[in-house]
Design brief:
- The complex is a heterodimer.
- By secondary structure, chain A is α/β, with parallel strands linked by helices.
- Chain A has two domains: 104 residues, Aspartate Aminotransferase, domain 1 (Alpha-Beta Complex); 258 residues, Type I PLP-dependent aspartate aminotransferase-like (Major domain) (Aspartate Aminotransferase, domain 2, 3-Layer(aba) Sandwich), CATH 3.40.640.10.
- Chain A has 13 helices and 15 strands.
- Chain A has a seven-stranded mixed β-sheet with strand order 2-8-7-6-5-3-4, with helices on both faces. A four-stranded antiparallel β-sheet of chain A has the order 11-12-15-14, with helices on one face.
- Chain A starts with 9 loop residues before the first helix and ends in a 5-residue tail after the last helix.
- By secondary structure, chain B is of the alpha/beta class.
- Chain B folds into three domains: 54 residues, no CATH class; 239 residues, 3-Layer(aba) Sandwich (Aspartate Aminotransferase, domain 2); 125 residues, Aspartate Aminotransferase, domain 1 (Alpha-Beta Complex), CATH 3.90.1150.10.
- In chain B, strand 9 and strand 10 form a beta hairpin.
- Chain B is globular.
- The chains are: A alpha/beta, B alpha/beta.
- At the A-B interface, helix 1, helix 2, helix 3, helix 4 and helix 5 of A face helix 1, helix 2, helix 3, helix 4 and helix 5 of B.
Chain lengths: 443, 467
């Protein structure tokens, strides 16, 4: 029976079998032991037509409850311009392979080169790779990279103010790779430089990771961190939200050797957590330890400007077990999201995104405090995300908001709840959220 | 293909903008932040109008080859057709705006989809449980190896720190093992291209955690000794990891669990038709047998949230499109195409392993490699000349078992006419190698750029644009 994705007629199949010298398709599995062949029918659903598929997915979607998002914690509801999906859906990008054949991949190679450039502009560092899977895996790879750069040292320090899922993924990678990972508890909501200094004295630390904006939404003042880390001959890694780097001190500005994070904030929809895109940037001197694909500029046989995957001797397909990482497929198409987004936004648009988020978040912050149901937790500078100490149990607060159509007040433990406001939230939506919260006062 | 030689930065002019954002009416902005937290100079991002941005990227797209424009005979990459309905469904607004940390009761549709996809993957592979969290094939390998190590650790068997990997394996196998803290021990292939049992047996001691295999292997051969390999590895206390990169050959015909594998990953961007995206996003779900299922949560978190959910949606749509009626035809039609191409060109290209292949096979250069005047026709020449004929090049110089490897994988979505056109181009190139060698040596001739200087790129690193 004909099927839309299989072009073969019965006659085609007969002709092809005849060329091979086989009688039936079953003959093509003559080398498989008979008892290993699957017999019978798979217990999966019947084939669906496109109409049935649309109904199926509509049905699944109807089981979700759409909420206005007032949370971040590593995934942010930023606005994405109409041009972005239009470019992404172009088949020449979407259905192309990894650009190993440079002659027929200049489109992909060029936008990755642009992506690398833009990530360097945002972080202030010299080099960027072509992407990692997501923020947490970029953090894990950055830590392993610091170990590779410093040799012989097998321990890393991570600030307890990093997002929980970043700490968890870093912990998984380090445990199996045989790298010691020490989490430094926060001090009044920020990374504890004194505690880090004490740990560094042991002399076995390869890298130290701290966030630019932390799990409480606080913009960390990283003055003095680079000196302390470099004095101990370790590398400083700053985990950043790249959107914020339009306005905030860059990782390079804080003296970082490596920057990493999740670039989902640059035009990529929430999509229940993925696909997103990790980024990884470093100083020039460490580029040969940078994992993943890297695009470089060169010239072709006729002297024209051309782009190629370069420094491939670091990678798994050449170096195998001695590679800087096992990463192969990364998030190339998501790098196109970021590149098109940043091309549209430019420096002023991205600053406006931050200003609008900042304005909305600070408006919500003061209105929530005014309800009397919250108190200030840390009283430190924040951008679009903040935590408050809630007088109402976090679970009840979140449940109340969900009933009114909001996702907010994510519990951070210790009676703390976090909120986030992006430029995508209007004053009316914020006021409605505050009304929903205020309804708890009557009880 | 049209040559278009601009970078977005070269279209930038101070004062242009491509965004449309509200003015905003907030009392405060980022200027209120303490001075030392603010960056001193704004980033040098491009300032470009919206029409310029659109035209730039559409022009760049014109410099790419893609599945939607032509045939990719790329070995081990399974470049099959990417159905459009899957794209439409994956951008469904009922899923696109879900935050990954929303309360479970508000994301029941998304969780149900993940559950149904997992169930299908279990049925198709014979495994008992899948985690959908890994974001790509290599990420799946790493996750699977962590589960393997966790298995030994949980039994207090701490000395098993070595992993056996065949010399024909994908490069990600040894690299993933190294990231996982395992020492790689390479096992040889026989002249027939299969795992050398006489070499394998003595390697299997109580320091071996297991073996990583792909079956069919990268020569496209079914490891006929699989029964014996499984028996020996299990008797030695090790586990068997199945690299699902070559699963397309077996889809609907052989289940990895029935072969005796304990842990595996699937590349949804290969076997389950989600688009490759120029190098991701992919998805690499990991499946395990019943006795290992409890170990999945024990290894800890491997990615941010629930994996590449958007990719999972596309793969599920693909499975539902095929359904039980068609899923079993994928492997046989892919294998048919591979054997057809193999048989059609073996008089002109050297076929080091002539037996029945699965979804892919390997030529070792031209049958007549010496062009007469001492000049060698290389695999690179053949690959580059194919571009002129409108085809993507095959995977070249892999596997490493031969010097001039040309690894070809047609898939079940290529018509006989397309395969015949490819065969014809390959025959013409073989002719040209004898009659007009210069044409090959200077190929390609029709692409936007020709043989970029890779050495220059690596020795004079230019990784960013500078004004």
């Amino acid at each position: 029976m004909a099927f839309a994705y299989f072009p073969h007629t019965d006659e085609d199949i007969r002709a092809m079998l005849s060329k091979i010298g086989a009688v039936s398709l079953d003959d093509l599995y003559a080398d498989v032991p008979g008892d290993m062949l699957f017999k019978g029918s798979f217990d999966i659903p019947d084939a669906m037509s496109e109409m049935e598929l649309r109904r199926k997915f509509d049905g699944l979607a109807s089981m979700n409850i759409p909420l206005k998002v007032f949370c971040g914690a590593g995934a942010y509801d930023h606005y994405s311009p109409a041009v972005v999906p239009a470019i992404i859906s172009r088949a020449e990008f979407l259905t192309s392979y990894t650009p190993y054949q440079a002659e027929v991949s200049q489109g992909t190679l060029r936008y990755i080169f642009e992506f690398q450039t833009m990530m360097c502009m945002l972080t202030g560092l010299d080099c960027s790779n072509a992407s990692m899977y997501d923020g947490p895996t970029s953090a894990a790879e950055a830590l392993l990279m610091s170990v590779a750069c410093t040799r012989k040292k097998r321990r890393v320090l991570v600030s307890g103010t990093l997002l929980p899922h970043v700490l968890q993924v870093a912990g998984t990678y380090c445990r199996f790779h045989g790298v010691g990972l020490t989490v430094i508890p926060h001090r009044s909501g920020v990374s504890d430089l004194e505690a880090i200094r004490r740990e560094l004295q042991a002399g076995d630390v390869a890298g130290v990771m701290v966030p630019g904006i932390n799990r409480f939404g606080i913009i960390e003042d990283l003055s003095g961190f680079a000196d302390a880390v470099h004095d101990a001959k370790a590398l400083l890694i700053v985990y950043s939200d790249p959107s914020s780097l339009a306005v905030l001190t860059t990782p390079a500005g804080w003296g970082a050797d490596i920057a990493c994070g999740d670039a989902q904030t640059l035009g990529i929809p929430l999509s229940f957590g993925g696909p997103y895109i990790g980024f990884l940037c470093c100083r020039q001197e460490h580029v040969r330890k940078l994992p993943g694909r890297i695009v470089g500029e060169t010239v072709d046989a006729d002297g024209r400007r051309a782009f190629v995957l370069t420094l491939q001797a670091r990678e798994q397909h050449i170096r195998r077990e001695k590679a800087t990482s096992n990463i192969c497929s990364n998030e190339s198409l998501m790098a196109l999201y970021v590149t098109v987004y940043l091309s549209l936004m430019g420096p002023d648009g991205l600053k406006r995104v931050n200003d609008l988020s900042y304005g909305g978040a600070h408006y919500l912050h003061s209105r929530l405090l005014a309800t009397g149901l919250f108190s200030e937790a840390f009283d430190k500078p924040f951008l679009k995300e903040f935590v408050l100490r809630s007088k109402v149990p976090a679970g009840l607060l979140q449940k109340t908001l969900v009933e009114k159509g909001f996702f907010g007040a994510l519990s951070c433990g210790d009676g703390l709840v976090s909120f986030c406001v992006t430029e995508n939230r209007s004053r009316e939506e914020i006021d409605a959220l505050v009304d929903a919260v205020s309804s708890l006062k009557a009880n | 293909m049209k040559n278009y030689d601009r970078l977005i930065f070269e279209l930038s002019r101070e004062g242009r903008c491509g965004y449309s954002l509200p003015e905003g009416s907030w009392e405060e902005n980022t200027g209120c932040l303490p001075q030392n937290l603010r960056r001193e100079t704004r980033p040098a991002l491009p300032q470009v109008s919206e029409p310029d941005v659109v035209r730039h990227y559409v022009n760049l797209s014109g410099m790419n080859y893609s599945v939607d424009t032509g045939f990719y005979p790329l070995g081990s990459c399974t470049m099959k057709y990417n159905p459009r309905i899957d794209e439409e469904l994956a951008s469904h607004p009922g899923f696109a705006h879900l935050h990954p940390l929303q309360p479970e009761e508000t994301v029941q549709g998304a969780l149900q989809l993940c559950r149904e996809l997992s169930d299908c993957l279990c049925k198709l592979t014979g495994m008992a449980a899948f985690t959908l969290n890994p974001c790509a094939g290599a990420h799946g390998e790493l996750t699977g190896l962590m589960i393997m190590r966790q298995y030994h650790i949980s039994r207090g068997d701490l000395k098993r720190t070595r992993i056996i990997v065949p010399d024909s394996a994908h490069g990600t196998n040894p690299a993933s093992a190294a990231v996982c803290g395992l020492e790689v021990v390479q096992v040889r292939s026989t002249p027939e291209g299969l795992i050398d049992m006489d070499h394998l047996r003595p390697l299997l001691d109580d320091t071996v955690a297991g073996i990583m295999m792909t079956n069919p292997n990268t020569l496209g051969l079914f490891e006929t000794g699989i029964r014996e390999i499984v028996k020996c590895v299990h008797e030695a206390g090790g586990l068997l990891y199945y690299d699902g990169a070559n699963m397309n050959a077996l889809l609907g015909k052989v289940r990895p669990a029935d072969m005796g594998f304990d842990i595996m990953h699937l590349n949804l961007h290969k076997t389950f038709s989600t688009p490759h995206g120029g190098g991701g996003p992919g998805a690499g779900p990991v499946g395990v047998t019943a006795s290992l299922a409890g170990l999945i949560p024990e290894i800890g978190r491997v990615s941010a949230f629930h994996g590449n959910f958007g990719v999972l949606m596309k793969a599920y749509a693909y499975i539902l499109s095929l359904g039980r009626q068609n899923i079993g035809r994928v492997g046989p039609l892919a294998v048919l195409a591979a054997n057809y191409v193999k048989e059609s060109l073996k008089d002109r290209y050297r076929l080091p392993v002539p037996s029945l292949c699965k979804h892919e096979f390997v030529y070792d250069g031209l049958a007549r490699q010496d062009a007469g005047d001492g000049q060698q026709v290389t695999t690179l020449d053949i690959a580059k000349r194919l571009l002129d004929y409108g085809f993507h090049a095959p995977t070249i110089y892999f596997p490493l078992l031969f010097h001039q490897s040309i690894m070809i994988e047609p898939t079940e979505t290529e018509s006989l006419e397309t395969l015949d056109a490819f065969i014809d181009a390959m025959r013409r190139i073989a002719d040209e190698a004898e009659s007009s060698l210069g044409l090959l040596k200077s190929a390609p001739h029709t692409t936007p750029v020709r043989r970029p200087d890779e050495t220059l790129a690596a020795t004079h690193l230019k990784l960013t644009w500078k004004s």
